[in-house]
Amino acid sequence: MANSNEGSTPALGDAQARKLLEAPPADTLKGVRDRAILATLLYHGIRREELCGLKVRDMQSRQGVMHFRIKGKRDKIRFVPIHAMAQRLIEEYLALAGHGTDAAAPVFRPVTNNRTGKLDKPLDGSTVHKSIVRKYALETGIGAQVNGLCVHSLRATAATNALSHEADIAKVQEWLGHANVSTTRLYDRRKTKPEDSPTFRVKY
Questions:
Q1: Is 67 among the catalytic positions?
Q2: What fold, for 13-148?
Q3: What is the tens place of the pLDDT at every residue in 38-78?
Q4: Which residue among 33, 35, 44, 47 is the active-site one?
Q5: Residue 89: per-residue pLDDT
Q6: How many Cβ atoms from other residues are within 10 Å of residue 112's Cβ?
Q7: Which of 51, 58, 63, 171 has the smallest count of CB within 10 Å of its CB?
Q8: pLDDT (tens digit, 9 = 90+) per residue, 30-47?
Q9: Domain ranges within the chain, ordered by starting residue
Q10: How does DSSP assign the chain, residue by residue?
Q11: Set 18, 62, 73, 88: catalytic member
């Protein structure tokens, strides 16, 4: 069932992805964190639980390039190169939040905790869904345009975008941490581009 679900997950268009990325305010800690989170999801196609599980030490240099060390399903480890834009936003956020030198700390943490005041725990998945992805999707009007938008939509967006820009499907499979390439193919929408529809060939 998971496979059919992945195939039906709506992906954003490029303009919508850019709009979502630019939605968080640049002058608050929450806004800076949220933009870094959206960039991490949109540029790397990682799962919500993989994002929440990232620790500072999971950002590692390999062959001179910064990578995320990601613990995926069934505890499989994969290394994903960090996009320059996302790296800059994450570094800005860590500098502002002040935990960038704490190797064991979660990369993405709460900015407030009214109950205990402690901020050194990872964000939970429902916060990423409700307070970040859905919040900015509603604010920008994207939520009204895209039926069923969820955190997974950003994974679908990254995969669809990479494939439409000629990324090798076997490399995308590895990048997403899919056990089977048939799952990755669900994101391959190159044959169903709306702009190729006969609709746009009709002229009166």
A1: no
A2: hpI Integrase; Chain A (1.10.443)
A3: 999 999 999 999 999 999 999 999 999 999 999 998 889 99
A4: 47
A5: 97
A6: 9
A7: 63
A8: 999 999 999 999 999 999
A9: 13-148
A10: -HHHHHHHS----HHHHHHHHH-S-TTSHHHHHHHHHHHHHHHH---HHHHHH-BGGGEEEETTEEEEEEE-GGG-EEEEEPPHHHHHHHHHHHHHHT-TT-TTSBSS--S--TTT----SPPPHHHIIIIIIIHHHHHHTHHHHSTT--HHHHHHHHHHHHHHTT--HHHHHHHHT-SSHHHHHTT--GGG-GGGSGGGG---
A11: 73
Signed CA dihedral, 163, 167, 173, 176: sign only: negative
* Catalytic residue check, 178: yes
Known catalytic membership, residue 134: no
Residue 165 catalytic? no
Q: What is the mean pLDDT of residues 3-11?
A: 67
Quote the pTM value. Answer: 0.88
Annotation says 129 is catalytic: no
CA quadruple 79, 83, 86, 87: dihedral sign: positive
Q: Choosing from 43, 93, 136, 187, which is the catalytic residue?
A: 187
